[in-house]
Write a structure and sequence with these properties.
The structure holds two protein chains of two kinds.
Chain A lengths: L1 H4 L4 H9 L4 H13 L1 H17 L11 H10 L13 H32 L7 H10 L6 H7 L3 H9 L2 H6 L2 H11 L5 H6 L9 E11 L2 H14 L3 E8 L7 E9 L3 H9 L3 E11 L1 H27 L4 H33 E10 L12 H59 L1
Parallel strand pairs in A: 1-5
Antiparallel strand pairs in A: 1-4, 2-3, 3-5
Chain B lengths: L1 H4 L3 H20 L5 H17 L10 H27 L8 H4 L6 H8 L3 H11 L5 H8 L3 H19 L4 H12 L3 H10 L1
Classes of the chains: A alpha+beta, B mainly alpha.
Amino acid sequence: MIAETHFAAPEEVMALLDGELSTERAASVSAHVAECAECREFVEILRNGSMTVANWTVPVLLPNGEFEKRLAEAAPQVPSRGRLPELNKWSAFLGRSWMSIAAVTAIVLAVAVTSSRRMATPTNMPVDMARTDRGGAGGGFNRLDQFARGFGPQKSATVQGEPASKVSENLPESVGQRALEENGLVSPEDRFSGTDDLQTPLIARTVTVSIMVKDFSFSRTALDAILARHHGYAASLNASTQQNAARSLQASLRIPAGELNAVIAELKSLGHVENETQAGEEVTQQHADLVARLKNSRETEQRLQAILLQRTGKISDVLAVEQEIARVRGEIEQMEAEQKTLEHRVDFASIELSLAEEYKAQIGSPSPSNATRFHNAMVAGYRSAVESVVGIMLFFAEYGPEAMIWLAFLAPLAWFLRRRWRLATSLAS
Amino acid sequence: MLAFVQGSPEALTELFRRYQQPIYGFFRRRITDSSRAEELTQETFLALLRAADRYEPRALFRTYLYAIALKILRSYRRKAIFRAAFHGRPEMISDPAKHDATETGLWVRRAVGQLEATDREILLLREFEQLSYAEIADLLHMPVNTVRSRLFRARVALRELLKPSSTAVAAVTQAASVGGNPQMIAAKGQST
């Protein structure tokens, strides 16, 4: 047996390399390895494997002085062992029980909140509500900030349990940033440049307005003027101007986010607002994820290209790297397009406008002449006759062959039955 | 850690400086998102701070710290799966070796990603965190002998994955599976 020719099992040889054998066993296994060429070769294989695995390096984490400083500041707040009372076990037990109760309550609340969010239509949520709700859920919080506001889970739980308005008071940076931006002091590009969690929330706003106007022509002209004045545009516009009917217009407008309120106010002045809905979808997290993934992919592409330039290997390896580069490039372009779309949604608010005219039927509405009506009737009659002929032909073309088959089956039977009936009637007479 | 528990705040800063990079590496090799890895690193030290009054030097501090990191990692993965189940938006929760290629060692990461989950965890803890068999066994709640055999299996499988054409390693694997001594067969395989 091969196993009997070796003093040590391969796992023991591996443990020897890892320094996991006892002194006596290590000495004996080491002596065997020194004598056995196969075991030495196996040792070499294991060493090479570890060296290869070591190629998986991780970038050095940049020193976070802020976190370190806050860590040092918070450290004295932790009760040291010497200051703990004798009832430490009881307090730990109670603490853990309360933690369990709090965890169960949190799970129930999370399920309830999630269910209610799924049931509610997000687009019906007002913009401000959406903002404060996301803020209340801790979307804009960094863990460092949570830590800075007060050490310990109890403190953070209190903050999360506060009303939305109160939570928003605890976010002076983001609120202040939003105010600056609304006043035009911060450009939208600045918002996209930040990658930390404290950046201004990116909100894609959508407004739906239905307006009843008295003068449709004037409103149509005014709409074009509003779009030109506020640098917006109509993504789609469908106007219906039928005679003897109310004229209407459905348009999907794109307005710079900063001009949205002014545009809505001007649109409302065109007539009577019948319906208005505003919604805001926060895409901050989505954008941050996209930016991070894009950055990673770009770094990956650079490193792959560096590998391709610097390393020599088999053709199959080179091809594999090139395929990987092509895949990463495709992902980068796709993500860049997604990023542009997302930023465009934030920069340009969407207004779904519906304009309808107050229709008043007119007694003296002009009617076409008799000659025109006769001509139209002739044309309509001709078309109707042609349609009828074509319809009959289509019917026979579609059902004729099938009818012929049924006729071939049923005709002999009918002939036979008719003959029997005639025979019976003749005998009876 | 004991110095910190006794009331020396500088000790915690020193611990942070000493273990920040290893803990970040621990998360970075298991999570795709680098910023999330940094966040979890900070969370690990916060958890260490919170649990300072309950610290008892029953094992090495390093083991204690990695145990916290492992719990935080599992918690993060659970939450990610939970969120994905509720919101229907799958999140990249782990295994950068499977989905990501952001650093050097592309093939290594891919090969490690193909290992069985527990074997991979043991291999990573041994090769990168440099934990002993006993520490790994303590962390993963399994016998030391199981750790050793699984580590051996992972290394052999990884060798095969890194060099698929190597008949020697295939022979080692085969021999290990049938109970023979793989050294000889591996050597034979290489010679052929």
